[in-house]
Specification:
By secondary structure, the protein is α+β, with helices and mostly antiparallel strands. It is built from 25 helices and 13 strands. It is flat and about 170 Å long.
Length: 770
């Protein structure tokens, strides 16, 4: 009998398992119940034994005492043992000698006359319990002694009238007792708790026999039940075996007929799946927006066919095949020798024997691991007449019979369609690449212009970055969309790109512009717009750049637009541009504080600037921290140093000129205002010029200037008003240094005067002093 028939036979014996479960459950419930009853019986047995021992001890106490009273014998040292407490102690001591089971029975008290009868901790607890609850008559507790469980049983010993003879008021007790005991066991009244009877019985005495009986009964019950179940199983198995055998024969017959029907159904189902795959792939070819989407979705549609365990499509990228999509259990995008051979030969390849050594090791490993039976690889071509491949499609199946003819025909047809579609996208990509290259070249051109301007004037570079930051803050406050903010920031970064057409003499001039120069620099707006608007991706930015010098009341340039004719982004850029110009140091105009700049924006709200944009700007720009080192005057690059020398160097001596001297003294140069100025004034230089001619005088002035630069090291040295030279913050011995100057050997006299800060009207002060 095969495993399938045995499995079915086991199913027919479910009645046996139901009975077995019921029997086991019943036995378990019965066992648990008897176990509970056994535990209760153990506790009851312990209690009953302790109760009996207690009653026996009390009975003996009573009998001893009554016999003593009836005897009429006087109480003395020989007869005191007949008293209840004494008798109890003697009985307890004798009992402890005789018992072999570890049982103890005592009368104990918290105020004993015999210290052997003093209550231990547990007995003291029971005495306290009876005193707290006088109505209680028993105290029972399970305790652990020497690692064994024991039952502790106690009952209260209360004072009765005849007890007062020994434990009543001290002046009323028996004379012998009074003389014998000088302790605290007096003063009791009828009903008081004198002590307790303490009985401790190890539980094993009655627990072990009871549990032995319980376990024996349990084993017998389970044994009988197992024998019963075995009998039932044999009976059911014999009754069901014939029925199972008949069913097996019927199942074989039904299976043969069912297999035929299933094969017919599977073939029909396979044909439907082929048609569905073709339809799905064709839908992808129609709707795909890119070559990546086309290949991925086509491979995905093929992989949904139950006949294919893996689908991989690779195309030529550059000089190598690249896997563009792969759907397989191993999820690895790897080009194999099979792919390369099919691509290079442009011929289909069907591999049926995957154990052959000619099959790549990677394919053999996956075939063994995932049960692949056949591999089919077909080239992808641009059209049916093409001789070269543009890619390759490789399909694996786990079907026992491999690919059917229908599968091969479908895959060849789809490979042709996919190859044609891929080629179409390649052609589109080539055209798009050319267009993007054209755009990129123009973008590179724009970036080159921006870099050129920044190289010409680093102040402009810092200015555009700050304007971009301010624009973003204002636009965010006004709730502009993320795209509008991004466009505005990008426009701010290039808003001065038109300055590429502005002459250096105007752009780099570190001073106020003439009207003609101002008209020239205004041309940068139109120039920037024309540069940017020639490329689609910059057209929106160009519109913003065009408006950044327009004013809300129409007084701006280049077109004098006003109000709603100016976009909100243009209004924001105008405010950000003006705010940075106000708060940075220019050579012809010192910086304004943030507070003054904001006040000026508010003053020009509604005239120069959009009111809503001004309200947002004054809110977000109020806490802006202006970098104090931002300065148009301090040279940041070599070209700026040249610019500075062009405008601020004395043409003859190359020292700083009087214009730069004024900026330094006024604190507008980027250098700290000097604490002192040492002025050297030549006294008789006019006479020297007449004698030596102007050329000779110039040579001496140049020589003297070189001397000062060398001796003064890094100190600022100026030539002002012809024959005067100034050294800022000179802490050297100027008088001593001057004795070595070329003036001495040429008999030119001079005066030296040091003027301390602050400097109010420096020119008048120097002329007055010298």
């Amino acid at each position: 009998m095969n495993s399938e028939s045995i499995f079915k036979l086991n199913l027919t014996t479910r009645l046996f398992w139901i009975i077995s479960v019921l029997v086991v459950v019943g036995l378990t419930i019965d066992t648990l119940k008897r176990y509970s009853q056994t535990k209760e019986a153990i506790e009851l047995e312990g209690y009953n034994r302790a109760k009996a021992l207690n009653e026996y001890l009390l009975s003996m106490r009573y009998v001893y005492h009554q016999q003593f009273l009836k005897s009429g014998i006087d109480l003395n040292d020989s007869t005191v043992g007949f008293l209840p407490a004494h008798a109890s102690t003697l009985i307890s001591d004798e009992f402890s000698k005789r018992t072999t089971q570890g049982i103890t029975i005592r009368n104990v008290s918290d105020r004993p006359r015999n210290q052997k009868n003093r209550a231990d901790k547990l007995e003291a607890e029971s005495i306290a319990y009876f005193k707290a609850y006088p109505e209680k008559t028993q105290f029972v507790k399970t305790i652990v002694q020497n690692g064994e469980e024991s039952l502790f049983f106690s009952e209260p010993l209360k004072i009765v009238p005849y007890c007062l003879a020994c434990h009543g008021e001290i002046d009323k007790v028996n004379g012998y007792i009074k003389d014998r005991y000088n302790d605290t066991a007096y003063g009791y009244k009828v009903g008081d708790i004198r002590g307790v009877t303490s009985i401790k019985i190890p539980k094993y005495i009655f627990k072990d026999p009871a549990m032995k009986i319980f376990l024996n009964a349990t084993f017998i019950n389970f044994g009988i039940s197992l024998l019963f179940l075995a009998f039932i199983y044999i009976v059911i198995r014999r009754l069901t075996y014939r029925e199972a055998h008949i069913k097996q024969e019927l199942e074989v017959m039904v299976k043969e007929k069912t297999t035929k029907l299933e094969n017919a159904y599977l073939h029909e189902k396979h044909l439907r799946s082929v048609l569905r795959t073709v339809a799905d792939v064709n839908q992808v070819l129609i709707t795909a927006k890119s070559i990546e989407e086309l290949i991925d979705q086509a491979a995905s549609a093929l992989s949904l066919n139950d006949s294919f365990s893996s689908v991989k499509i690779a195309i030529m990228r550059g000089k190598a095949l690249e896997v563009m999509a792969s759907y397989s259990p191993w999820n690895e995008k790897m080009i194999t020798k099979v792919d390369i051979d099919v691509f290079e030969s442009a011929q289909q390849l069907l591999i049926l024997d995957l154990k052959n050594d000619s099959v790549p090791e990677f394919c053999r490993e996956k075939a063994e691991l995932y049960g692949i039976s056949t591999i089919y690889s077909t080239p992808l071509k641009s059209n049916s007449f093409a001789k070269e491949s543009i890619g390759v499609m490789t399909i694996c199946t786990t079907m026992e019979n491999g690919f059917s003819d229908d599968d091969i025909n479908m895959l060849d047809e789809l490979a042709g369609d996919i190859g044609f579609a891929i080629n179409s996208f390649i052609q589109q990509d080539a055209l798009e690449f050319l267009r993007e290259e054209k755009i990129k070249r123009y973008q590179d051109f724009i970036e080159a212009l921006v870099e050129m301007i920044e190289q010409r004037d680093t102040y402009t570079a810092g200015h555009t970055a700050r304007v971009a930051e301010y624009s973003s803050m204002i636009a965010t406050e006004l709730g502009l969309s993320k795209k509008n903010i991004k466009d505005l920031v990008e426009a701010a970064k290039i808003h001065d790109i038109g300055k590429v057409v502005t002459p250096d003499s105007v752009l780099l001039k570190p001073g106020a512009l003439t009207k003609l120069e101002y008209d020239l620099i205004k041309e940068h707006v139109i120039a920037g717009y024309e540069v940017l608007s020639n490329i689609d991706s910059y057209k929106e930015l160009a519109e913003i750049v065009l408006l950044h010098h327009e004013r809300f009341d129409g007084s701006g340039y280049p077109y004098g637009k006003q109000g709603d004719e100016i976009s909100l982004s243009g209004c924001i850029l105008a405010i950000a541009d003006s705010f940075d110009a106000m708060t940075t140091n220019r050579i012809y105009k010192p910086r304004k504080s943030v507070e003054i700049a904001i006040a000026e924006l508010k003053e020009l709200s509604g005239s120069h600037y959009h009111p809503l944009a001004v309200a947002a700007a004054t809110k977000v720009l109020a806490d802006v921290k202006i970098n104090q080192i931002i300065d148009q005057i301090v040279p940041m690059s070599e070209i700026e140093k040249e610019r500075l020398s062009y405008f601020f160097q004395d043409r003859l001596t190359k020292l700083y000129n009087e214009e730069y001297f004024t900026l330094v003294v006024d604190g507008r140069s980027g250098y700290q205002i000097p604490d002192s100025l040492s002025v050297i004034s030549l006294s008789n230089f006019t006479k020297y010029n007449r004698e030596k001619t102007w050329d000779g005088g110039n040579k001496l002035l140049i020589e003297f200037a070189e001397f000062l630069k060398k001796e003064m090291n890094e100190l600022l040295v100026f030539r002002i008003w012809g024959d005067r030279f100034v050294v800022a913050d000179c802490n050297l011995d100027l008088e001593g240094i001057m004795t070595l100057s070329p003036l001495i050997k040429n008999n030119i006299s001079y005066k030296i005067k040091t003027i301390k800060a602050p400097f109010k009207n420096i020119k008048e002060e120097i002329l007055r002093e010298l």
